[in-house]
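Dear H.,

Thanks for agreeing to be a second pair of eyes. The structure we're designing against is below in token form, covering all 730 positions.
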């Protein structure tokens, strides 16, 4: 049994930013950072909105943070009593990750006695627009209290301010903050009501972008004060009547009571855990870390939408512009395919619906087909900047090539769609635009192929592979292999046009010269250059990689002049060495383990691992997965733990040059899940059956999980001795 609760005791100001991520609560619609009620933008408070973006001037376009309806603090005997200013005698924060409930308990000693605040809050998994908080104050003396609570509309922005206008007002007992975003004029409406159990003097204030209720009363030792806060968030993106909706949600749910809303939230979590929980017998820490990772994935799943994806930093804020990367399809998707196929469909549908943006991007660079955004937002246009890193020394932006050269992104989308079909068996996704998406991605790679007059192969030049430290390289093995896969999948789709819905077949035939494309893509797949192992079995990551300096990781690290320095690009310490940022060849081999015999997989794992900085949280799980394929579960275990604990430990990078990149890491969470289930659990699909070839790490006696395959839930239990039991629901 695991505790399902993480708690941190003591107050450490230097951990405020990190704890905001570690204790995050979210429901796919919004994410609320694990900060305290009295905190403001200075402590990086954020109510981060899924799928809503804004740009101010030429600043980076990023996701929008809503006004914070949880804002609450106290004045005790005329002294402001709040963190971080007022040091507590005791303090703890907790996250109950079984039920998605954040809580805190803080005691302050005042000259007249001690006073304790206990609060809990959640964003409802049952009603995505609703968030609740209970806040209790108790004291051992007759305290003169002013309790201040309301909405703080002075939001934290990285590239803001995003509201060109903010209305703050009271109406029918509700207080409201309605912000208008500067670029598209979206309205974000936060509405709050609050009940208090003690008689008090009440007034309202509107000042410094805050609308606040003030409750003044004497708090006696024998009678605690409890307030319940009801907060709703609705936007003009959801409905035209966002304001009425926000108000009626509060009025209706207040009638049902706090307990009812909390219970229905907990029931929804239970529903998710019934399918998603993973049991590991023999390694409690691993089971905790994995289920904590799963908590984060469930929290950010866009269950309220039919077409939306998950940003690289989840709903923990505006880092990475709230944008969607290859992280979703390559690292997170399997979890949703196996446990919540509806969400997987929503993620895939988002890519289909943003195909036009990808087509625009390809045209912009002079290519055919669909070049997906490296950093994708609601339209699929690329939010990535050409200068995505700031140099620590000169403070000048550095030209980076993530946006224009990381072409492997389009193949990730294709893989996502095909994986969706493989696991769910639902081919209607092809009718709904999936077919075109795959074909357009193949056309994109086709338009990039180069042929030298003296070589009989096609090459892809001037790219950036997953290892972003080496820019503008030729024939990155991972990229070429994924392009080949894309051609193969496009051929598969085009060759089976007749099996699709007649409407789809007609549409595709009108749009494409089907037989010509089949011919071209077949030829492309056959002739695209795929780097092969050398005499030692090593695959060169890209042309010329082996000619680079073979310095050790420690040596390269020691050359840093500043710990925040960017390792890649023109002047980076890694660029002219064989040190790589993250799994690259290894990602290829983890995705396509059947490409080479076992010894080759192993040789590459051994070669690249010491040369990998693991500067991205996406790296460890690929080493974990491949170690499993190589029959080394004991070697995979530390990589699995690193992925699963990414948001518990906070050892990941917080800076890329001068750019803050902290936040939650759902791709690492998804990667940990993949390592557990696909790696240790060894599941695979053959002849329409779910099978497993497990290999558990030394102490793991049993591993148990559930998987949806072709619409049926399968309960899988594997054990240390290789035993496998798969039962399918009737
Ligand atoms: C990694 C990318 C990743 C991005 C978002 C970068 O540091 O190199 O592969 O997609 O972070 O997680």
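And this is the sequence the design step returned. I haven't edited it by hand at all.
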């Amino acid at each position: 049994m695991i505790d399902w609760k993480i708690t941190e005791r003591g107050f450490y100001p230097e951990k405020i930013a990190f704890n905001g991520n570690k204790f995050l609560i979210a429901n796919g619609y919004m994410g609320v950072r694990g900060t305290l009620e009295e905190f403001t933008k200075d402590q990086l408070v954020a109510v981060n909105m899924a799928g809503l973006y804004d740009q101010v001037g030429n600043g980076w376009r990023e996701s929008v943070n809503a006004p914070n309806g949880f804002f609450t603090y106290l004045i005790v005997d005329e002294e402001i009593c709040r963190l971080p200013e007022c040091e507590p005698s005791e303090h703890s924060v907790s996250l109950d990750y079984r039920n998605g409930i954040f809580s805190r308990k803080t005691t302050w000693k005042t000259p007249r006695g001690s006073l304790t605040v206990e609060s809990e809050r959640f964003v409802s998994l049952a009603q995505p627009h609703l968030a609740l908080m209970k806040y209790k104050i108790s004291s051992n003396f007759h305290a003169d209290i002013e309790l201040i609570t309301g909405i703080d509309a002075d939001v934290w922005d990285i590239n803001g301010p995003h509201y060109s206008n903010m209305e703050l007002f009271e109406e029918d007992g509700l207080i409201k903050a309605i912000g208008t975003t500067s670029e598209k004029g979206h309205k974000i409406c936060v509405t709050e009501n609050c009940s208090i159990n003690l008689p008090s003097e009440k007034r309202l204030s509107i000042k410094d972008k805050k609308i606040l209720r003030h409750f003044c009363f004497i708090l006696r030792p024998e009678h605690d004060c409890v307030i319940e806060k009801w907060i709703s968030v609705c936007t003009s993106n959801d409905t035209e009547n966002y304001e009425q909706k926000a108000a009626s949600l509060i009025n209706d749910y207040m009638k049902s009571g706090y307990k009812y809303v909390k219970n229905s939230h907990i029931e929804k979590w239970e529903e998710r855990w019934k399918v998603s929980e993973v049991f590991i017998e023999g390694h409690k820490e691993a089971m905790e870390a994995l289920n904590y990772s799963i908590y984060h994935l469930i929290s950010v799943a866009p269950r309220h939408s039919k077409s939306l994806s998950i940003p690289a930093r989840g709903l923990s804020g505006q880092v990475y512009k709230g944008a969607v990367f290859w992280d979703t399809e390559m690292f997170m998707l399997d979890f949703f395919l196996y446990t919540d196929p509806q969400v997987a469909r929503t993620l895939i549908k988002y890519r289909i619906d943003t195909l036009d943006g990808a087509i625009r991007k390809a045209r912009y660079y002079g290519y055919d087909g669909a070049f997906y955004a490296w950093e994708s937002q609601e339209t699929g246009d690329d939010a990535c900047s050409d200068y995505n890193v700031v140099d620590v020394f000169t403070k000048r932006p550095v030209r980076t090539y993530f946006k224009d050269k990381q072409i492997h992104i389009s193949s990730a989308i294709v893989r996502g769609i095909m994986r969706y079909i493989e696991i769910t068996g639902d081919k209607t996704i092809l009718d709904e635009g999936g077919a075109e998406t795959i074909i357009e991605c193949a056309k994109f790679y086709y338009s990039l192929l180069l042929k030298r007059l003296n070589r009989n192969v096609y090459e892809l030049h001037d790219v950036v592979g997953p290892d972003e430290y080496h820019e503008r390289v030729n024939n990155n093995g991972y990229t070429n292999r994924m392009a080949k896969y894309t051609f193969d999948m496009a051929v598969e789709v085009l060759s089976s046009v007749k099996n699709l819905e007649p409407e789809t077949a007609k549409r595709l035939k009108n749009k494409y010269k089907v037989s010509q494309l089949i011919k071209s893509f077949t030829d492309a797949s056959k002739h695209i250059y795929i780097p092969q192992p050398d005499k030692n079995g090593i695959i060169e990551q890209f042309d010329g990689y082996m000619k680079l300096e073979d310095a050790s990781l420690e040596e390269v690290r020691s050359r840093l002049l500043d710990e925040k320095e960017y390792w890649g690009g023109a002047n980076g310490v890694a660029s002219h060495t064989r040190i790589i940022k993250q799994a690259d060849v290894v990602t290829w081999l983890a995705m396509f383990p059947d490409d080479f015999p076992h010894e080759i997989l192993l040789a590459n794992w051994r070669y690249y691992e010491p040369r990998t900085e693991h500067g991205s949280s996406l790296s460890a799980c690929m080493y974990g997965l491949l170690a499993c394929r190589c029959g080394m579960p004991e070697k995979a275990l530390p990589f699995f733990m690193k992925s699963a604990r990414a948001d518990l430990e906070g050892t990941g990078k917080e800076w890329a040059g001068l750019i803050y990149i902290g936040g939650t890491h759902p791709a690492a969470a998804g990667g940990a899940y993949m390592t557990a289930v696909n790696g240790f659990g060894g599941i695979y699909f053959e002849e329409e059956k779910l099978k497993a070839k497990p290999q558990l790490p030394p102490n793991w006696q049993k591993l148990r999980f559930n998987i949806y395959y072709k619409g049926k839930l399968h309960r899988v239990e594997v054990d240390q001795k290789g035993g496998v039991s798969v039962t399918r629901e009737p």
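Two observations from my side: The mean pLDDT is 97. The chain has two domains: 5-242, 280-728.

Warmly,
E.
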